Amino acid sequence: MARYRARIEYDGTAYFGFQRQVAHQPTIQGAIEQALGQIVHDPVTVTGAGRTDSGVHATGQVISFDIEWRHLVENLQRALNANLPADIVVLQLDETTTTFHPRFNAQRRAYAYHIYNTAVRSPLRRHRSWHVSQPLDVALMDQAASCLLGVHDFATFGLPPQGDNTVREVFAAHWQQNEDLLVFFIEANAFLYRMVRSLVGSMKAVGDGRWSIAEFEAALNAADRNRSGMAAPAHGLYLVSVTYGEEQDENIRNKTG
User: Fold this and answer.
1) Quick one: angle between helices 138-146 and 213-222, nearest 10?
2) Domains of the chain by range and CATH?
3) Tens digits of per-residue pLDDT, 149-200?
4) Could you give the CA distance from residue 64 to residue 49 in angstroms, rounded to a whole number?
5) Which of 85, 140, 211, 228 could pair covalently with 205 via S-S, beta carbons 3.0-4.6 A apart?
6) Catalytic amino acids?
7) Full-model pTM
8) Residues whose CB is less than 8 angstroms from the CB of residue 187 and which lie 6 or more positions away in sequence, other chains included
9) What percent of the chain has pLDDT over 90?
């Protein structure tokens, strides 16, 4: 039995999040486990680095699973992609150590959020970005994002997935504009539940003039969930990367040659 680590991309539109549901609703985890089961003819459990919500996408989710496989890793990746639905793909697959855990070993995670900021909506972008029709001041939103850098109590913007610790360290937070598309990028050691979407909704209030920078910063410092702006919709959010230490990456290199 060997453990494998994979980097996957998916369109979350048709799924009730990453994590398998008791009610047998379609999930990313469930679809991957089904594909693996078809390949190895045994039940397989998949573990993910992040439990993305319904409608959330990923370009760099990381998963692991344990199976018996006597062929090349490249053959397993091809078999997986042949059995997965068209909206999920394995971008990279490697054998790793049995101690690797995609969630507990992660040192950093990064998300991006897309806002389509134009007067007329785009049917092609409706599942990929949040359409905001009123003009937004991206420079002010970027200034608000800079307040997030460093170690803060983010209780205003989310709930801890377990325990009661709401302190997180943010390494990067900024907005970029490409014509009508505004993209918020944030990288941190970990995230609270709904944290990115709540931050985006609050920074959107800065961009449309309802909040000042001082009001945004005061909300952050209040560590009060009631002070958050409206959470942005899920379909604009992407999990873009998960970063591990050099030890885990070296273990993979040793396993693969």
Assistant:
1) 30
2) 2-105 (3.30.70.580), 108-240 (3.30.70.660)
3) 999 999 999 999 888 999 999 999 999 999 999 999 999 999 999 999 999 9
4) 9
5) 211
6) 53
7) 0.92
8) 108, 109, 110, 111, 170, 171, 172, 173, 241
9) 91
